[in-house]
Queue: 4 jobs
Job 1
Amino acid sequence: MASVTPRVAFYPGCSLEGSSGSFEASLSEVFRVLGIERNTLKDWTCCGATSAHAVDRRLHLCLNLRNLALAEAQGYQEVLAPCAACYHRLAGANHTLQEDKALLASLNSETGFDYKGGVKVRNVLDYLANVIGVERIAAKVKHPLSGLRTVCYYGCLNTRIPRMASFDTVEYPMSMDRIVRGLGAETVDWSYKTECCGASLFLTAESVSAKLVAKILKDAIAHGAECIVVACPMCQNNLDTKQEEIRDAFKIPRPIPIVFVTQLIGLALGLEAKALKLSQSFVPFEKVLV
Amino acid sequence: MPVEMKENPSLCYQCAKCSTGCPVADEMDVLPHQIIHLLTLGMEDRALRTKTIWMCAGCYACAVRCPNDIDITSVMDDLRGAAMATGVPCPAPEALAFHQTFLSDVARRGRVHELRMMGEYNLRTKRPFHNAALGPKMWLKGRLHLFPPRAIRGFGKWMKKLWHR
């Protein structure tokens, strides 16, 4: 049987259209250079993270069912959700609904949708490393990032969906490392790859999230990293925007930029800092590169 | 009052792997494995009043590591929801206010308007100048939009049927 390339719906999510526009911009620029088509899911709505799943399981399932049903009705076989929180909610709800047909039927009738369970939710790291492929990205590199020492930070939500097969190793993922190495940069083994940064407590328990952020920054610096590469807007926001205060409070010796993996790919592909919205980050990254 | 949940706490044999790997365990009054123990003893009321359920960062480290395959993170979610629905005193009112603010913002247009959401959250927690320095800095960086995203037609009405609070 001939394999047919699935149609992929792009689900931006609220963060990429808001405080993490640099993730959206860099992803879209990288796709353009690689010649990958991007079709945005029409009429998509919020996945409910951080709150729906946290207080109402049924609401969480319904919000995600809506987007999955739209994707299916619009003729897509896959949904690409670059935000780790959106990915976790969409993929987790999808898994629950696909496994429990009775629940799916009941929620379909409650919400007025008719989702049949025919959509796969893709993680951005999975898409970059395995669908596009590290080799295909590496082949387009114009400015190898040789000499750049990085740590890849996956955070908690990219690989941890209970009972669902993960696209990467849950405790020590390597997909982002493979991508970054393909760009010519070095990725270092470190201890905080998947430790939570506490982004969900960013507004509600600042001192707690600051403590978690400090541990991650310290370990990255102890390993000599010049930047932390991320694939989650919550992580980027949490590690970057309050970093100055956190460095002061926890005696962290130097700043460390937090860069989206797609921004790093873009730079290696020869794209301009402006197109990748590097200046949206609080801790400047350009200095590291010169 | 029994809390409605998909997970089965009685599968737990108290190895405490969840608590040892929890990044916010030191902020909790009752550790995750103790919460599960409370549930196996039928003491949901105690569990609902803990600071623990509001401190959980939702990182799923416990859930993917549990040797008995209990999704402890989802148990925390169910307890939080039940605490909210029954109105027991909340030891972390900021977290409660945040979830209410977030969901009311989603119900408004279908997509979150971060600036409005942060403003309403400050009003609800009666701290108008909370994070006051961060907002303008984020706006100058182009990370906060003054104007809300386009509203999705019919979404508010649709969501109101599912979310009454």
Note: The mean pLDDT of chain B is 94.
Job 2
Amino acid sequence: MTMTKSRSRDFQIYGLLLAVVAVLPWLGAYPVFVMKVMTFALFACAFNLLIGFTGLLSFGHAAFLGGAAYAAGHAMKEWGFPTELGLLFGTLVGALLGLAMGYLAIKRSGIYFSMITLALAQMLYFFFLQAPFTYGEDGLQGVPRGSLLGIIPLSSDLALYYFVLAVFVLGFLIIYRTVHSPFGQVLKAIRENEARATSLGYNTARFKLLAFVLSAALAGLAGATKTLVLGFATLTDAHWGTSGLVILMVLVGGMGTMLGPIVGALVVVALENKVGDIGRFLAETTGVEWFAGLGEAVTVVTGLIFVICVLAFRRGLVGELAAWWQRRRGTGAAPAAS
Amino acid sequence: MTEIFGIPIQAFLGQLLLGLVNGSFYAILSLGLAVIFGLLNVINFAHGALYMMGAMFAWMGLTFFGLNYWVMLVLAPLLVGAFGVVVEKLLLRHLYKLDHLYGLLLTFGLTLLIEGFFRSFFGVSGLQYSVPEQLQGATNLGFMILPNYRAWVVVASLVVCFGTWYVIERTKLGAYLRAGTENAKLTQAFGINVPLMVTLTYGFGVALAGFAGVLAAPILQVQPLMGSNLIIVVFAVVVIGGMGSIMGSIVTGLALGVIEGLTKVFYPEASATVVFLIMAIVLLLRPAGLFGKEK
């Protein structure tokens, strides 16, 4: 009873959010910016499936975003794939990369798992650096947007906007369904106590691998969509810095919450765009010249947020909000941060 | 006999030496990671950034204060170590009761912070640091020309690595450390100040990284991002060797450096990825690592 009640409340919130995002372009929001946020939000949601609901910290998710971005871009530009097939191809490449990396990484757990994913992603980065189809430092440019099912052209930002929104909603619903399925319950059991899940007869390695592949596939979908939106794919997508960025998004928004990654993606992408302005403002008001260079050193700001979040703010924005709501309603202890 | 497998012996030995130099850095850094992980259960992502800090301090010491290489070889690790002590006391200390992943995340944030900080002052172009005059030039060994500084890097690293091994495995202080690694609570019950030991261990581990940074300053470009790719290779080294044994870290680090150097001779395209490939193979055949024990 309470389950269905909380679920219907969930969907009221999601519906409201969807309505807001759907009218944003009419309220003067820059469509490409919102689309960029949506692709990163999907990326972060996919990542959250692992860290938030399975307890696995992957430090290599940039490989799936970047790999799929190149794959989809190459398919659409060089092979003339229609847009939908291009995205599908990117997703498939993400899934296959995830299968290979996950198969190796789940052989170890905890911190080793993180180090292995980081190292394998770095290997892939060096491969992309040398491979001819990525065009090295220049990046793969001029990827056509094509049209939806060959009928609706996506060349206008507005048409593309609703297409990307649909892709995002689809990805989000897949994650929602996964998390709230019996499969998702097993994943949570693994997160809480892997040994106990094993002793109950679950083949935890297989569950972890499946979660990893699903997460990689959705990260791939995000990467492919990103190529579609921006028209290019670059090495930055596959760099370890991007893996760090998606961790930050989920950390800021709230690990293990459905909406946290979306909020986190918005905050982090906006911050990356605006940090230069903030720095110039600080330099003017405080007279400290160093702030003016802040735009060049965004990592100082992201690093600082990382440290603060880990030390004092582990539930993230959405997690804190939910805890505050719970306290206000007086429904007992707030849920522990995961 | 001037060729080995069709490669001129000079080039071959030159790459071998370069591999040993890189291997020395891998050894010192993975050793530091292992010592820290043993006691703190934290994987210090900031190790690469602190290595960079050591190199930067060496350059700053010479450029701003006229302090030469030898002074900075002692001073820079001390400064980096002191920085580590502050980090441990102020930040890391609060995370020991939580999941180990938070330690990794915190030190990752620190890495971004430190690298970004230095970048905001020095940009990303490399700063020149010349080889100290006592070690300039090269020695002709008959079969190869040995650059003195590179030989010094290998020797100095080996001395530091084996010195650390000796202290940990053969002295009373090391016995305390090993006891703390095995069971911190019980060790504290015997009257040993474990929190202090934890602080000093972290300081010592990062000082090793700073030392490696000073050694690297004259041969590699000194720049704020010099540690960020290195640390990922060192992680792979740690996965290959496992963090269970000090000697294992040293041997694995050196061996992988040499293998990487030889790959540069025979198949240069793979030299950047060979360590990662070896990691993948080790994971398939012996998941716990060559010297590791599954915790």
Note: Strands of chain A lie at 147-148, 152-153.
Job 3
Amino acid sequence: MNHVSPRRAALAVTIVTVATLLLSACSTSAGSNGSGSTSGDSALAKVSKGASQVHVSLESKGGKDVCTLDATKAKAGPVTFTVKNVSSTAITEVELQSDERILGEKENLAPGLGAVSFTVTLTGGRYELYCPGADRQTQAFTVTGKAQQTSSNAQTALQSGITGYAAYVTQEVNNMISATDALNTAVDSGDVAAAQSAYAEARPYYERVESDVDGFVLPGFTPTDNAGNLDYLIDMRASNLDPKVGWHGFHAVERDLFQAKKITASTKTLAAELDANVKKLDALTKSLTYKPEDLANGASDLLEEVQTSKISGEEESYSHIDLLDFAANIEGAQQAFAYLQPGLTIIDPVLTKSIVAQFASVNTLLEKYKDPSALGGYVRYTAAVKSADAPTLSAAVEALHENLAKIAEKVATA
Amino acid sequence: MTESTQDGEIHDGEVRGDNDAAGVSRRGFFLGAGGFAASGLLVGGVAGAAGGFAAGRGGSETAATADVVYPFFDQPHQAGVQTAPQKYTVFMTYDLSTVVKTDVQVLLARWSAAIAQMVKGAPIGNPEPAGDSAVALDSGEAVGLGAQGLTITLGLGPGLFDGRFGLASKRPALLRPLPDLPSDQLVAGFTGGDLCLQACADDPQVAYHAIRNLTRMARGTASTRWTVTGFGRASAGPNQETPRNLLGFKDGTRNIVDDADFERWVWTDGSDQKWMDGGSFMVARKIHMNIEIWDTDRISDQEDVFGRNKLEGAPLTGHKEFDTPNFTKKNSDGQLVINPTSHVALAAHENNGGIKIHRRSYNYTEGIDDLGQIDAGLLFVAYMNDPEHFIKIQTRLGSVDRLNEYIKHIGSAIFAVPPAPKRGSYMGAELFS
């Protein structure tokens, strides 16, 4: 529901430039002035169990939080970093980076918990161990020799995910056309019950992908003019109306069908206009390009939608089919996540697993509300359902949202 | 909490000489830290360097509290129990939503690390992390406010030991949900909790920031259950002038303040559960006050309800606040001067087989209720080494206390308070070893 101007194409160009700058700047900035006690030249990691073993210790020493490696060099090949937080309260995560790309990491490293480890296959070059919160945050780590390059696997997987996701969004918007065509036909026929049911059929398409398609401004309009804002024209709710532009789109139709329960000439105009605007949206959607973090941010934004307008019951204040929209937001987020999953599993298997489990628990929760006889297939989200169940729904979504919000950074730097 | 941190707070030049647990005279205090306090140089922005200032609080609290740091690790007990009460609190209880034991373990370890940072006035991670896609760990609203004497006290509810996490054998025998007590009018939404955190600080935003960020850390593991935001400490610590509750009376005049009483009545030993050595039990009660009705009650009746006069806080049988009440003294009509159903008579240790509990309460207000009346009261927090002590006192109070006409116990919970962690460990670590 953000009123954002078109941005993806422009961003894609910027990112390429930034990435190039980073490649040239990074290797010189990494801890080159370090005078710490940890940079002993002879510190070549010992090999055991087929991997070079590096132990990282996080400690509080003399009021400072320090991150210490027992080896600063390794031979090319698998390297296992075993991290133990001995006493540092300021450092709770450690990342292995190369040119600011995250190759491996560990979080939740609080004092008192057991040691944890991650293994990466490294080829010759300079790396940095990044310990945010440490007195000296970046430690140089050098690898000599050559190993088979595996660190780009994540990127390859993410790229193929993007292609799949783009097709999904295009498909959803395309299917939305058939659904708003059907809504328009039903409204034209004057049959309120048929129009109500067509309304419920059409809603999920937008809710699955809205975080990707809510940024379009029609040609000839400025971004601050809601009259040219496609998301405003398609999905604006009563609570956020711009009096200059008036009410258009799904929810204006919803008001007529579910509050007055009457189809007037104005309802017919609104339904026809909605159908036309969805066709414009379809044409514009085909031009979208994505980066991995767009999928991650989109998924996170859909969860934000659930929290701000579905659990509150604000989205469908006349039809009360909020749980249908809720399920569609979750489904859209889960699709975006699923396309990132093969790449994300390589980057952070623990987080990936926990998100998979959290999606499952939200879906299990939603199962309880399924009702094939209800409009849209879910029980009406009445005040009673809301007051009884909103805290539970909100807590489940909140936990998922917190984790989804972590993905963008990981896939952007993979 | 320990002697070195009992910092001899001074209000308007009054010092409670009989309980100078800090061993810091007013003069000594000013010699120690007064140079900074007077010039105001310590206020704000120096939290990272403040670790060495274990104590330092001047007569002008607002200027000098920024750098009060209570140590977190390697203390005999958790801070926030014996610590001289700070001005503000945010109290939060949680339900564990996870069923995985290690999730609980990681949460307690993460909380401990974060608390260790925040009590120094430091953020938990950079509020403005590098990289456009990075999400900050710390929300940032406490940046620049200093430590403000922040303490965060952890409590473990009976639910933690109910078998979900394989911790049943670690349950302290005395940790059981409180029984129904006379006059209880508990509201389900204000009761219980598997975990609780009480943040206390001399700046309300510092306390709020702590609970907000610790709550965020719990997402997916524990969800919020009930909460109270309090102000105007309603129990005195050593060297503090006795504060007042919202009924306008001094509260905590006869509170436990000296170490011997803490040893005798507050701290638990390890005889039942080794991990509770140096711990305590916390009882939290949300007590609604019928403010409008109380305000129109005549002064003589209000004083009869409490058994004390209003301004000085003296027992009706005495002249000064700390005069010992005489519960047998009669007036010329042959009536007891202190009404036997007054609050002070029923709560007094003399009339409860010597039992004492340590109170550390805060006033609260939550706006107005649906009748348009002021929604306010007392977040009663008490520490004791046997919850039966509270039960015994409250059973008497709930049965006949004249005050019951003006108050309503609407919230209730009990928690075991583990001891402070050793450096390199975390609160409750012994539960998982």
Note: Strands of chain A lie at 46-48, 51-61, 64-69, 73-75, 77-85, 94-98, 101-106, 116-122, 125-130, 138-144.
Job 4
Amino acid sequence: MTRRPVLLAALAGAAVAAFQSLTPYLPWGWFHPVPMNWLVPETAVGVSFVAAGIAGMVRRPASRVGALMVAVGLAWFAPTVGFLIPVGIFWSLSINFGTLYLVLLGQLFVSFPTGRLRAWWDRGVVAGAYAWYVLSTVAGALTWNPAWPGVRPWQHNVFYAFGSPHLNDVIGTVGDVGAVVLAVVVAGTVLRHWLRASRPGRRALAPVLWATAPTGAWVILDQLSNRVLASSQLDHAVHKLGYLVLTALPFGFLIGLLRVHLRRGAVGNLVVELGGPAGPQAGLRQALARVLGDPSLQILYRVPGAGSGEFVDDAGHPAALPGADAGRSVTVLDRDGTPIAALIHDPALDSEPELLESAAAAARLAIDNERLQAEVRSQLREVRASRARIVEAGDRERRRVERNLHDGAQQRLVTLSMALGMIRDRAGGCAPADLARDLDEAIGELRGAIGDLRRLARGIHPAILTNEGLGATLESLAARSPVPVLVRYQAARCAEAAEVTAYFVVAEGLANVAKHARATRATVTVTQHGGGIRVEVADDGVGGVCAEAGSGLRGLADRVAAIGGTFGIQSTPGRGTRLIAELPGDAG
Amino acid sequence: MRADPPGEPGPAGGTRQQERRDGPVSGLPEPVGAVRPSPAADPAERFRHLRRGGSGGGQDRTRAVLAEDSALFREGLTRLLTDAGYHVVATAADAGELLLQVRGHRPDVVVTDIRMPPTHTNEGLVAALQIRSETPDVAVVVLSQYVETTYAVKLLGDNPRGVGYLLKDRVANSQELCEAIQRVVNGGSVIDPEVVAELLGRRRGHDPVGELTDREREILSLMAEGRSNQAICERLYLSSRTVETHVAHIFTKLGLPLSTDDHRRVLAVLAYLRS
């Protein structure tokens, strides 16, 4: 299917080129001797366009540039062939309408590298070129007749209707001025494309941009040498330049076409753009529309878990895929066979399946990326919440254990000690001395056990924290510290999770001060911080504490993070240690 | 069986007792542990007390209300106090019941656990504060599981007359416990020695407590526990002059204004030790 146009182009090009090459040996030999310095470059230009065009069609089937180049080549050949056939109608066609290749060339420049005209400006420029072509050639054909010496019998204009040399001259001048203007406009358009292109786009456009200057110069010089200067020597030189430029030109296009595919480059940009901080939802549609050159592009997303035909638009409103007769095309993006989104676009894009596929892949990537990020964010939220819940559950459990120790074991031990005390009292003076002593010892032992239990319960959870708040609890901690501690408490009460965490930070901090810091004093400062509190434990000890050093500090950092706070350690050797925890008031 | 726990307040320690209760019995030498100070303002109460006193063999017993959620402990403590000569007029299992009983019985002293239903934290303390504000003539002893000066200081407030904060462990020694309760009944204040020990043990940056002699530290500790000079004399077998000299030294070293009022002195010492 795709091979046929290529084959046709190759056949047509080969036939024309063969015909032209064989001209000197044709039986009618009217043109003896055929000037080889004309025939060779003339054939070379056409062959070059057709060959480069075929290469382009084969290597970049999505682009129409190859076909356009073949068309330029064939349009270039046409007048030469016509000119060589000794029949009036062919001669007249070739002499009057032979500049079609120029218009096609202009279209090639303007539509490179897709071969399509999407912007209104580009379309306008090409439409203007065709208008110029039709008007100037028709007007010329109607008013011109060859009148030079040695004109052959078939060399007359069959379209000639009326006119005078003067009229013909005016029409010719107007046509040439139009050609110059069009050459300048086309060059300007190419420059505009280049200026607006992305980096890969510029890479593709560069050879064409460079080709614009000599081609434009040749077109303009051609007109000038014909009209204004009327110098045959210059005319000759310009013709040589023209052959050179036109033979080289298709290869410039071909290089540009093969180097980087402009749109696919833009797809690359798209991928980069969609990975940016704005996220894909913000600009996916605009970016895809820009890359595909289809401002009407729509993206519909499939709601996870919904039926296969149910889609929503960017705003989340349900939207249906257009029917077959809606004049729109649908490209469904799927992952593992499940549709995740659909692109609704201009049917024209269907002829660029590669481009569409690349853009769709980028979009799928972006949508997948967004979906994964959302999933990760939600998992992170869940993990954070569960971590906070675990810590809270741990605190609750500690409170429960503390309560059970106080109301269970401790209470029973106290009751037991009371009973023993009363037994001792009753035994009074009548009991043997050693029994009284044993009882005393037992009671003393029991009191020791009760004290141990009290300290254990306090370490598990200080009951005073619940009743009297953090300030009193920290004072109490400070009172038990073997290192003098100054407590500065300048905060209101806040969430229990924050207070419990602050307590553990200070308890662990002061325990470390006592154990490792060799400090002479420590300071505990609690201040209001935003909606929460900031806790600082500072000492004047040896410093050099590393966050990873003790599992205690590591555990503190985890605990603080679990309720959404931050934890830091400043500890330079010889300059003391400072633990700083900032805890949110709303418990994470 | 020991019926009369030796209490510190004799008539000699009774100056503040007179401030508080100038009833007909206040000036009399009373058997320790059987003090029955009459409520100052209520004639009906006085009458009832006289009548009941007659039926009690001429001896008024200190009337107590107990609050404790554990039945076993409550019963044990009731027995302990009864054995020690107290008349336990009512018991309560929670703070609400305690308040009702106190309002109904107007006892001489309330002995309450600090942890009670429903939250098992400091209900007893809250109830004690309410009793003190409603009926200032009712002495209150809070039995606590916690060595926390915050609770003790809160209980003392700015009027430490007739309050005590004791560790519950003290029940192992009925003599010690009743002695402490009696001091409170007599209008004194009692802070558990363990709480005071923690206050004294606290390390400070610049620590004048560290400059005290052992004897002075001992006396400071007894002052913080709420004891009067007289009680300190008896306890340490020192003459009152010696104790007065020590007290003066302590206050000079700590930079505190010397106070002759024992109650102000407790507050000042506690405040100093907590600072």
Note: The first helix of chain B runs from residue 15 to 20.
